[in-house]
Amino acid sequence: MKNKALIYAAGALVLLVLGVMFLRFELPVVSVSAETLWTVGGFKITNAYFTSVVVTLLIIIVAFVGTRDLKIKNPSGLQNVLEMIVEGLYNLTEGVSGPKWVARFFIVPTTIFIYVLMSNWFGLLPGLAGIGLCQEHHVEAAHAEEAHAEEASHGETAVSSTTCPQGQVIVPFFRSPSADLNNTLMLALVTQVMAQVFGFSALGGGYLKKFFVFGGVAAAFKPDEHGNKRSVGGMMMQLAMGVIDIFVGLLEFLSEFVKIVAFTFRLFGNIFAGEVMLIVLTFLVPVMLTLPFLGLEVFVGAVQAFVFFILSIAFYTVAVTSHDHDEAH
Fold first, then answer.
1. Is 51 helix (H, G, I), strand (E, B) or coil?
2. What are the CA-CA distances from residue 241 to residues 100, 208, 213 (Å)?
3. Which of 17, 138, 198, 212 falls between 20 and 30 A from 63, CA-CA?
4. Are 246 and 216 in contact (CB under 8 A)?
5. In this structure, are residues 284 and 20 in contact, taking their beta carbons and an 8 Å threshold?
6. What do you get for the CA distance between the two ends of the chain, in Å?
7. For the segment 159-175, what is each residue's pLDDT rounded down to a tens digit?
């Protein structure tokens, strides 16, 4: 088994080296920001936005086809698959949040999960990176000089993987929305805004007590739980604990904003890095060698969608839980 693994690794390395030496393809331009396809009335339609519309329409079509002829007793086909997915996510939500809140918590995270999952997988479809519009690409002078110097040193012009005229590159029509910071930021904002909505709806104004805790400091100047006047040492101890409570509350308040950043960059970073890796490998090695990495990215896309879903449920559950022991009980 070890010998076979070594042979496969050596073969992959040889193919990689041969691909780099003899298959001198022009790598596609990799842009962190989504590329603009069209401008309509001053509104820029990027490839990530265009893909998000396509993915949304596909989800609507699948939902419509699967539910247009509902069978209550013996569901089959696409309806059965959809019911299995929805039921599994509902049971998972109930297991985390409990039966009291599952009906409220279920809708938003499940919608985001399906959308993110389809977006992640749609961006992995082979060949999409080569379908798009030819647009001018402005590179820095230093990079252009390096490219011309490299071509002169080899005595030949690099073979282009596109049919665009010289000086232009293909801007693909499709790019996973999860590889666009605007998309992941909006999903994170929606998730965290809903957490605050659930928190206030469950606890009212008491929700703010999680973040602004001044009761400990005030208690230092009041009698203890037995009604006795506090000593100087007891007062200082209670005052110190009150200051710690204030600091912890402010940290928790700050964490609400940190969650937005974490949500945004976790999803963006994993999906964008995976797409770049697949694009680079596709232009360096034979297509067959990219299949294991493609399978890995399919798995990563599913995991990232699930992480977004389960963390949303967890944050909602924490938001509706009071810090007061009696109320929480």
1. helix
2. 34, 19, 11
3. 198
4. yes
5. yes
6. 56
7. 334 467 777 777 888 89
Distance CA 203, CA 207 (A): 5
Contact 177, 304 (CB under 8 A): no
What does the block give as tokens for 241?
Answer: 């604990």
- Whether 23 and 94 have beta carbons less than 8 Å apart is answered as no
**206, burial (CB in 10 Å: exposed 0-12, middle 13-18, buried 19+):** middle
Q: Which secondary-structure segment (H or E) carries 40?
A: strand 36-40
User: What are residue 45's DSSP bridge partners?
Assistant: 38
Q: How far apart are CA 179 and CA 33, in angstroms?
A: 8
For 195, the enclosing helix (H) or strand (E) is: helix 181-203
Tokens standing for residue 261: 């950043």
Q: List pLDDT tens digits, range 104-159.
A: 999 999 999 999 999 999 888 876 777 788 877 654 434 444 444 444 443 333 33
Burial of 13 (0-12, 13-18, 19+ CB in 10 A): exposed
Closest of 127, 54, 163, 52 to residue 279, by C-alpha: 127
Answer yes or no: are the C-beta atoms of 177 and 266 closer than 8 Å: no
Burial 152-164 (b: 16+ CB within 10 A, else e): eeeeeeeeebeeb
Work out the burial of residue 265: count CB atoms within 10 Å of its CB; fewer than 13 is exposed, 13-18 middle, 19 or more buried.
middle
SS3 (DSSP) at 171? strand
Alpha carbon 104 to its chain's center: 22
- C-alpha pair distances (Å), 305 with each of 86, 217, 280: 15, 43, 24
User: Could you tell me if residue 155 is left (phi over 0), alpha (psi between -120 and 50 degrees) or otherwise beta?
Assistant: left
pTM score of the predicted model: 0.79
Contacts of range 208-211, beta carbons closer than 8 Å, 24 or more positions apart: 209/322, 209/323, 209/324, 210/249, 210/252, 210/253, 210/323, 211/249, 211/250, 211/252, 211/253, 211/256
